[in-house]
Amino acid sequence: MTDLISGLDQPARSLLEGLRARALELVPDAVEGVSYGMPALLHRGKGLVAVAVTRAGYSLYPFSGQVIIAVAGELADLPRSKGAVSFTDARPLPPAAFDALVRARRAEIDAALDRAT
C-alpha cells in the first residue's frame, strides 16, 4: 500500500496517506498486504480496508457488503455498491464514516475469527 501511495500525484497521495495513517490509529496491529488483488491493510490476515484511485475519484473497499450496510447512515449520499463506497475530492468521505467502516470491519473480522477458534 505504501508503494502504491508513494507513486501517486497530489491530492491523491495526501488523501491516501491520511486514510492509511487513520486506519493504523484505529487498528494498530494492521499490516500491509494484498486482498482481492488490491494493496490493502490486513487485520488478522483478512482484508480490513483498501482505497483505489479511479478515473472518477476514489473507491474504498471494506471487503464486506454488510459493513457498508451497517454504516450507511454515516455515508450520506455518497455512491456505493455492494462492496465499495465511491467519493471524490469535491465530495469527500466523511472522517466519521471512514472510522465507522474501519471499526465495523475490524469487529466483523474479530467476531468471525473468534467464532472459528
Question: How would you describe this protein?
Answer:
The protein has 117 residues and is an alpha+beta fold. It has one domain (2-116): Aspartate Aminotransferase, domain 1 (Alpha-Beta Complex). Helices cover 41% and strands 24% of the residues. The chain has four helices and five strands; from the N terminus they run ααββββαβα. It has helices spanning 2-6, 12-26, 65-70, 95-116, and strands spanning 31-35, 38-43, 46-54, 57-61, 85-87. The chain has a five-stranded antiparallel sheet with strand order 1-2-3-4-5. Helix 2 (12-26) crosses helix 4 (95-116). The model has no long low-confidence stretch (mean pLDDT 93).
In short:
With 117 residues, the chain is of the alpha+beta class. The protein has 4 helices and 5 strands, in the order ααββββαβα.
